[in-house]
Write a structure and sequence with these properties.
Layout: E1 2-6, H1 10-21, E2 25-29, H2 37-42, E3 45-46, E4 58-61, H3 66-74, H4 79-82, E5 88-91, H5 97-109, E6 113-116, E7 119-120, H6 123-127, E8 131-137, H7 139-152, E9 153-158, H8 164-193, H9 198-207, H10 213-223, H11 234-251, H12 256-270, H13 284-288
Parallel strand pairs: 1-2, 1-4, 2-3, 4-5, 5-6, 8-9
Antiparallel strand pairs: 6-8, 7-8
């Protein structure tokens, strides 16, 4: 297929590379044009403007937030005004339910198709084409997008003909991951201050009670205080929890744990954590317990702490 790919950040670069490797004719665009060079070396073409990436059968966007999507789609020379009738916009970005709904309406009015297809996985999964994709939209549009989704992920889940449903699922998933990070951080602070080696504790957890990859991945990041460079930056995590709460308010669903997570992200950002991985909220419990950042493995019981 002939397509454009817009947004070559940590996730987008690997996704676009896999589309090129799968034999698709890819035109890439990024606001920082130097990021297009590795893709051009693989066989992609570089676009000077957004409109230049909208000349084919499809355009995929992988952008940071609602504002970036809005400017790229609705700005002068944007996707909405440049994509041909019948072509499809596939949005892999984590955006609000309301923005997804707005995109669907705009593309329908322009006789274009729209598929919301947010992805689950960190940059290493994106590079390995091992993402999980949640795709929602008109059945013919989703089916037409399958060759592209198959090139970036290991499995695609179709939930609804309403595109915004995919974004609701994505926000709910990121809420759950953040909840795992927070609970791991609290548990590790507890056992660490009790004198237990965090590596040994993580090996126990992931071999018995919690064998899912999310526990192995984020447990290791927390145990090692390995928060730089970020695979998913803390401000993006805070944004996703905020969007989940906005969706919950619209649907009148109380989410008290999400409110706590929002405050944890705000605490991290207030301490200068903007450049850290979002898993860094998992270190806050240890800090609250008196540990200096990066000193978790060295924690041993004080005379006031005991595991008995």
């Amino acid at each position: 297929m002939r397509l454009g790919f817009i947004g070559l950040g940590h996730m987008g670069a690997g996704m676009a590379a896999n589309l090129v490797k799968a034999g698709h004719e890819v035109v890439v665009f990024n606001r920082s044009p130097e990021k297009t060079a590795p893709l051009v070396a693989l066989g992609a073409a570089a676009a000077e403007h957004v409109a230049d990436a909208c000349r084919g059968d499809a355009v995929i966007t992988m952008l940071a937030d609602d504002l970036a999507v809005e400017s790229t789609v609705f700005g002068d020379g944007g996707i909405a005004g440049s994509l041909a009738p019948g072509a499809v916009h596939i949005s892999c970005s984590t955006i609000s339910v309301e923005m997804s709904r707005r995109l669907a309406q705009a593309h329908e009015q322009a006789s274009q198709r729209f598929v919301a297809a947010p992805v689950f996985g960190r940059p290493e999964a994106a590079a390995a084409a091992k993402l999980f994709v949640v795709a929602c939209g008109a059945p013919d549009a989703v089916e037409g997008a399958r060759p592209l989704l198959d090139a970036i992920g290991q499995r695609t889940f179709v939930m609804s003909p309403q595109p915004e449903a995919a974004n609701l699922v994505k926000l709910s998933g990121n809420f759950l991951i953040a909840a795992v990070i927070e609970s791991l951080g609290e548990a590790m602070a507890l056992v660490g201050k009790g004198g237990i080696d965090l590596g040994d504790y993580l090996d126990f957890l992931t071999s018995t009670l919690f064998t899912a990859p999310v526990y192995r991945t984020y447990g290791a990041l927390i145990a090692e205080s390995r928060f730089e460079p970020p695979g998913f930056a803390a401000p993006l995590g805070q944004k996703d929890i905020r969007l989940a709460l906005a969706a919950a308010e619209d649907l009148r669903v109380p989410m008290p744990l999400a409110s706590l997570l929002r405050d944890r992200f705000l605490s991290l950002l207030a301490q200068g954590g903007d450049t850290l991985d979002w898993s860094a909220i998992g270190r806050l419990a240890a800090q609250d317990a008196g540990a200096a950042p990066g000193a978790w493995r060295r924690l041993r019981p004080s005379r006031h702490a005991s595991i008995s």
